[in-house]
Amino acid sequence: MDEAANNSLQYALLMRVNMLRREGLPRLSVDELSKALTQGKWKDGIPSHTSIAVGDIMAITADDVVNTLTRLALTESSELRINEFDDLMGGKEDE
Questions:
Q1: How far apart are CA 43 and CA 58, in angstroms?
Q2: pTM here?
Q3: Which of 10, 1, 2, 8 shows the shortest CA–CA distance to 33?
Q4: Torsions phi, psi of 54, nearest 5?
């Protein structure tokens, strides 16, 4: 993808993040939106046409983002060992 197309995608991501923040995801980041797209709609690759990619960015909903990121978090956490959650369960005894 050339630099102009990449800039267009970055601009569209920034615009959509701002829109989604107003729609109920006030802490959403560009990285999280990008991850939701690349692990969801674009899991087989970013569309070759910039207009299609921008359309996808502008069409993603808050529910889509939350569902995709939740699924990814559950998948990633299922691969961790229980002791990797010590900080969430009261810390370690030697602290």
A1: 17
A2: 0.79
A3: 10
A4: -65, -40
Ramachandran category for residue 94: left, alpha or beta (phi over 0 → left; psi -120 to 50 → alpha): alpha
Q: How far apart are CA 62 and CA 60, in angstroms?
A: 7
Q: Cα–Cα distances in Å, from 57 out to 6, 41, 52, 65, 73?
A: 13, 10, 9, 11, 21
Instruction: Say if residues 37 and 60 touch (Cβ distance below 8 Å).
Output: yes
- Rounded to whole angstroms, the Cα distance separating 66 from 32 reads 10
Token digits of residue 86? 């010590």
Sign of the Cα torsion 46, 47, 48, 50 reads negative
Give tens-digit pLDDT for 33-64.
999 999 999 999 999 999 999 999 999 999 99
